[in-house]
Amino acid sequence: MTHLKLEIKRLKSNMLKMLLTVESQVKKTKKALVTFDKDLANEVRETEKRINGLELQIDADCENILALYTPVAIDLRFVLSNYKINNDLERLADNVDAIASYILKQETAFDPKLLLQTKIIEMFTICLKMLSNIIKAYENEDTDLARKVYAMDQSLNDHNINVVNILSEHIKAEPLNLKKHLYILSSVRKLERNGDLIKNVAEEIIFYVEALVLKHKNKV
Predict the structure, then answer these.
(1) FRET partner for 126 with CA separation of 20 to 30 A, picked from 137, 153, 197, 211?
(2) Which residues of the chain have pLDDT under 50?
(3) Would you say the C-alpha torsion 33, 168, 180, 88 has a positive or negative sign?
(4) How much is the pTM?
């Protein structure tokens, strides 16, 4: 195996570690929100530091491969796509870290009925399914599986649109809980954004495997 192939293998290993760590962060934040587990929310916040370190390592891996080995064709596309995927995953992790911070700022649990009505738990579940698909797609270079996240993301968009009307009614009825309602709204917005970030990752997988650019185009 050439030095280039060894470096690409190491890059893929680090990226899989990043993907799995981010997936774990989403799972823990979902559980912390449902159970109002502040210890788990703190664990999410601490793990964010490790994700930041891994992001820097992957960036360095990509830059070193480009500088030292001048990859071409699929190897070049792989490195370029990983550089972008890395950034999207770090932003995704930032979003769930922010949700964990909202949990820590509250003295009492979020109303289970409100969590149900806003469909925020369902949104977490959809994000996790999208991430599961992406991890498998990345590991196996499966572009058909990567494409499946587009349909799932539409559900996140729909929930995001509907949540404003739901929370408006609650804010009118419970003005003293305004901050808690705004945290829910912000969390929904961040989960919707995470769907977009996961779609970006899908586009990069398709780019490096098929040499097909989907950005700014209708997805196929």
Answers:
(1) 211
(2) 220
(3) positive
(4) 0.94
